[in-house]
Amino acid sequence: MKKLGVLLFSTLAVVLMLGLVSGSAFAQPVGDASVYFVTYFSNNVAAAPPAIVRVINDGDTNTNLYADYYVFDDSQELQECCGCLISPDGVDSESVQANANPLVGQLTSNTLTSIPVSRGVIKVIGSLSNDPTSAIPTAGLHGFATHVQAGAAAGTYAVTETQLSDANLVAGELSQLDALCYYAIVLGSGRGVCSCTQEDSDF
Prior knowledge:
It contains two helices and nine strands. It is an alpha+beta fold.
């Protein structure tokens, strides 16, 4: 019995060593399957530089994907939503701040309430559908966002950049985002819909 225990222990040690060497034996990641991302924006005022959200289609699915954006104010109210095309290996760049350039999409220039939004939350679903009221969550997008921070001196600002944070998209959250966007579009009569930057345009 003692010999059997030694043999089993030796076998397990060899398997573990092979796994560590090959990097393929135990729970190795097979790719980033995230479909849902969140970030924040702040100091969204005319005097400050604009925050920018950039989302990349990694090309793994070799198909067009859409970044379905859901923009909330700091009272947790959905203000705008839209779905923006990103072709394989493409990048979508959206300004959070209103911009006079018609080629630049803006995530807070057409708020449902017509009230400017200085800070809030942006949620993004990677989707096969350009309809943000009926998202089809699909992996393949990765995003980054710049954040505008108030500087030490009045009227000054600093800009930082981070990756969009992965989040857990449960069925209830997906259903709620679809419904909130649908009602925003219906009740807004043209308001509540964000615009998308034309693909291959950046700023």
